[in-house]
């Protein structure tokens, strides 16, 4: 029964996401393309809010962080040096009957097809990088890959940033960008996709300091998840990745897992990559990537702690966390309880009646003033006031402002309605801006 309820909740979240313009299936009019998703008007607004808050938190507001935006296509030797060409693979099994393919570690019975019940073949390794060719002639020299992670773009730019800015250790490089993985079996809505976005930091440090700095970033990631995104602490779990399952570059990794409706799964990761990447790139390229400590007059290869935040998984977790059902005024309602800073639409402005020009004119004035100041403001006069409230609740708008006859004839006040409680109060138009500034 619990599983059925979770599946139903996920189906309702997916339905709302499409109906209200958050997330659409990629290439939908052609039957879709597995593992690809498009963000609609409200989805891209939510995405931008998360990205902008992350950049402000971890780059703009800090003195030790440097932003970069590396190219998606890189010299193939980058991926050879990083170990991806040799090791970036998943176990694949194929059904001998229906010919469908699955990840071997995601099927319950390693001998039985989960689709048709046929016999599964032996597992074999499948490299997940998308391979392509650069230039007009295809050859071994023209091979490149769509990057499977954003990290390597930062490692190969480490020397450029050091030469340009001479930062003191510890310092970090930060990047937000697309990554691509040819997943064998994309699944669970946007959770496992072939095209996705990462917010990632490579934080460089002296090797002896890694434990202290690892714990620092552990706390910072908890703070981001609970305080900024508004995820419940009860829905987040730490998984200490055992030594035999660590990535080839990692000495220690913690996965932060979230209770999605489809099960507990990885949301973010924190890894201690040692000096693996810089040493490998230095050896493969022939370029020295050591750090000169001018005070100690010593040179050494910095180690690295890597906090990784998935943009798409952040959005999915925020949507799952925000999805609420309750009763208000004796009626069942669905609403998205986004934190105000994340909400795609911050304020909606209504005229009580759309066929009364004087109400519409005044509501337009209030709307224009608020939109100029807060940006994410919507004007809505479609349907009766109750339907407008329900519509705004479904997209997570924290506050609705209604202009009525008393606004014009009596007190120059509007009705401000709170999304979460449904409570309404009269506020003077001249006080709206300061009121909302305290919230947003």
A few lines on this structure:
It contains 13 helices and 23 strands.
Structure commentary:
- The structure is a single chain.
- It contains 13 helices and 23 strands.
- With 440 residues, it is α+β, with helices and mostly antiparallel strands.
- The protein has 2 domains: 243 residues, BirA Bifunctional Protein, domain 2, CATH 3.30.930.10; 93 residues, Rossmann fold.
- The strands form 7 sheets. The chain has a 7-stranded mixed sheet. A 5-stranded mixed sheet has the order 20-19-21-22-23, sandwiched between helices.
- α2 packs across α9.
- The two termini are 40 Å apart.
What is the general shape? globular
Q: If classified by CATH, what would the architecture of the largest domain be? A: 2-Layer Sandwich
CATH class of the largest domain: Alpha Beta
Cα radius of gyration in angstroms: 25 Å
Instruction: State the domain count.
Output: 2
Quick tags:
440 residues; alpha+beta; BirA Bifunctional Protein, domain 2; Rossmann fold; 2 domains; seven-stranded mixed sheet; 13 helices; 23 strands; 29% strand
SSE layout and pairing:
Elements: H1 2-19, E1 23-25, E2 37-39, H2 41-60, E3 65-67, H3 76-81, H4 84-87, E4 89-94, E5 101-103, E6 124-127, E7 130-133, E8 143-146, H5 151-155, H6 158-165, E9 171-180, E10 195-205, H7 210-228, E11 236-240, E12 252-260, E13 263-274, H8 276-285, E14 291-293, E15 298-300, E16 303-310, H9 311-322, E17 323-328, E18 331-336, E19 347-351, H10 357-374, E20 377-379, H11 385-395, E21 399-403, H12 405-411, E22 413-418, E23 424-428, H13 432-437
Parallel strand pairs: 3-9, 19-20, 19-21
Antiparallel strand pairs: 1-2, 4-5, 4-6, 7-8, 9-10, 10-16, 11-12, 12-13, 13-16, 14-15, 17-18, 21-22, 22-23
Helix pairs in contact: 2-9
